[in-house]
Amino acid sequence: MSSPEQWTHPDGAPPATAATPTAEQVIAGLRATTEGGADLVQLLTPEGERVHHPDFDIDITPEELRGLYRDMVLVRRVDREANALQRQGQLGIWVPLLGQEAAQIGAGRAMQPNDMAFPSYREHGVAWCRDVHPTQLLGIFRGTDHGTWDPMEKRFHPYVIVIGNQVLNAAGYAMGQRFDGKVGDADGEATICFFGDGATSQGDVHEGFVWAAVYDAPLVFFCQNNQWAISEPTERQTRLPLYQRAKGYGFPGIRVDGNDVLATLAVTRWALQECRTGNGPVLIEAFTYRMDAHTTSDDPSRYRLSDELELWKLKDPIERVRVHLVKQQWADQEFFDQIQADSDAIAAELREYCVNMPDPGPERIFSNVYAEPSPVLDAQRDEFLDYVSGFAGGEH
Amino acid sequence: MAAPAIDHAMSTASQTQTITIAKGINQGLRAAMEADPKVIVMGEDVGKLGGVFRVTDGLQKDFGEQRVLDTPLAESGIIGTAVGLAIRGYRPVCEIQFDGFIFPGFDQIVSQVAKLHYRTQGRIKMPIVIRVPFGGGIGAVEHHSESPESLFAHTAGLKVVSCSNPVDAYWMIQQAIQCDDPVLFFEPKGRYHEKAQLDPTQTPYPLFRSRVVRTGSKATLVAYGPKVRTCLDAAAAAEEDGLDLEVIDLRTLSPLDLAPVFDSVRRTGRLVVVSEAASESSIASEVAARVQQECFYSLEAPVLRVTGFDSPYPPSKLEEEFLPDLDRVLHAVDRSLAW
């Protein structure tokens, strides 16, 4: 006979913490979700030491690790350059990924060409892995377009801004992969869906878990727990470590060190393969940290202590790889110099592209609202364009 | 009262069959599923049960569980997964069990279904049909008798239609499924069992066109869905009093096709718009606004609206008072003529 205490705190789950953490908890980075303890999958420590895991180990060549390092450095540089472009008035807003490079590059590089990704709006690193050029992200934040890549060519869905919507869309897409007979062997297809700790409170995410489970959809739910949903800490969203929610839906949930690109790559690669072979879905909680603001409009100093950021800087996703490459003598100064040059080049390209982006013409308001004609909208467009052309030189 | 028949063009006796609106949609779905293996039906209880109104009766038995999906019970999930399936190349037909249950799916409809084609500049199409049994008159509990169509007509990126009779039901559902845009398909649940003759070999009337279903000269009645029959009944009653009323079935609510309405009002000079929905910011309001703009010098009287009231749908013992009926329609005609 179980006691009420056991009903409210299932075996293995930590006791719920108070909604408001103590100062010590905040400083230590310990909230409702702890560092993960023994459940956290880690292959490269913050100090750059390679450690091994019984279930999720990985063989990585020096060349592969250099590639992952290069990816992370370049997307960080893209992120910082775009942030600066916002500060200089060239972008209306920017959504920084700073600190989440390992989670996104690890997950993005785990994908096969035919796998499909459904991002939220912070997945600039995943976009990079899907060969979406960073310049194609700029229009969204400059206000010239809503994203210009071809989602089916890149296998990378448009950015989704309404929190959690894309989780159901991804579940439907993954159901389609199964209905199309693309699941069941190693050559199969899978889908990966990105969302944050805040999104886990949305009904759509819950429904996405239910749908994917009951239809055996080949879907990896990739939750980047960056500890903050704008100003709200993770304990405002959950009493339980997020990865443990999967158990209630009947599929595996794994917490990975989201600042460890090797561990993220290993776990996501395993999860996608499980899905391709018919054992989906899988939930991954990538335990990471949003080192910058929610967006350029946000001011984190109003709600979190800078000590917390200082602590997470010690767990930087890029630095640990650099240390490991040097210790192993897998990279020389020439390699690092080349990456520095590549970073400078892409930042310059981004800037050049951004400041020269033309504004869309007024006809864009009306274009592609529908696939088939809509006489009412067409008449509205004609009337407005006629009105606009009535001004001298066709300009307002 | 004998219901005047709507003329549905010539038909040959050998092909003609008697169907209801429910059966018309059922047969239309069947025809669409036979024609295109990418057409799938999804919703609550649509499979084994055949839907609570039996509109999807027999489809799962014949097309299998992968094409007729009994989904988990969550409307956002139905619409949200249909979005993903549409991206994957399917043409989902979603059933929302009752009008008042569409709101959990409203976010997905407005934020994704309506906007993905625009957001991607045409790279992603959303050929999704969302079937909604709507309207009152069935003595139901709360949330089962509503008319939310204006909310969707107000949303850019969606198309909204409503069938009023079995023949339109049969054709319009197939045309909606063939449309590459998302279509909200409002079905007059209170009239699911009304009958008409269908000849499936005839050429269908275009989907996004309104239609004059009775010609007349004294005043114009405009309606859609369940109120078309009410207006035809009112016109038949008026005829006994020597009043000759024209009746137009809007059929398409977004985009509106008002050219036949303008033509009619220019001849009759009088317009009464009839709908079960609340009047404020409604389809009826839009028709009234557009008619006064286009037919200003032809109008002999202000455009009148006969609608449900701007209250929530009342307890069903009051729905006879709430719903526009023949008497309220004729009362409005009298007021228009007496102006």
Automatic annotation (TrEMBL), chain A:
Residues 70-349 form the Dehydrogenase E1 component domain. GO terms for molecular function: magnesium ion binding; oxidoreductase activity, acting on the aldehyde or oxo group of donors, disulfide as acceptor. This is Pyruvate dehydrogenase (Acetyl-transferring) E1 component subunit alpha. NCBIfam families: PDH_E1_alph_x (TIGR03181). GO terms for biological process: branched-chain amino acid catabolic process. InterPro entries: Alpha-ketoacid_DH_E1_comp, DH_E1, PdhA/BkdA, THDP-binding. CDD domains: TPP_E1_PDC_ADC_BCADC. Its cofactor is thiamine diphosphate. The lineage of its organism: Bacteria, Bacillati, Actinomycetota, Actinomycetes, Pseudonocardiales. It comes from the Bacteria. Pfam families: E1_dh (PF00676). The keyword Protein transport does not apply. Keywords: Oxidoreductase, Pyruvate, Thiamine pyrophosphate. Gene3D superfamilies: 3.40.50.970.
From TrEMBL, chain B:
SMART domains: Transket_pyr. Its cofactor is thiamine diphosphate. The keyword RNA-binding does not apply. Residues 19-194 form the Transketolase-like pyrimidine-binding domain. Gene3D superfamilies: 3.40.50.920, 3.40.50.970. It comes from the Bacteria. GO terms for molecular function: magnesium ion binding; oxidoreductase activity. SUPFAM superfamilies: Thiamin diphosphate-binding fold (THDP-binding), TK C-terminal domain-like. Keywords: Oxidoreductase, Thiamine pyrophosphate. InterPro entries: THDP-binding (IPR029061), Transketo_C/PFOR_II (IPR009014), Transketolase-like_Pyr-bd (IPR005475), Transketolase_C (IPR033248). PANTHER family: PYRUVATE DEHYDROGENASE E1 COMPONENT BETA SUBUNIT (PTHR43257), PYRUVATE DEHYDROGENASE E1 COMPONENT SUBUNIT BETA (PTHR43257:SF2). This is Alpha-ketoacid dehydrogenase subunit beta.
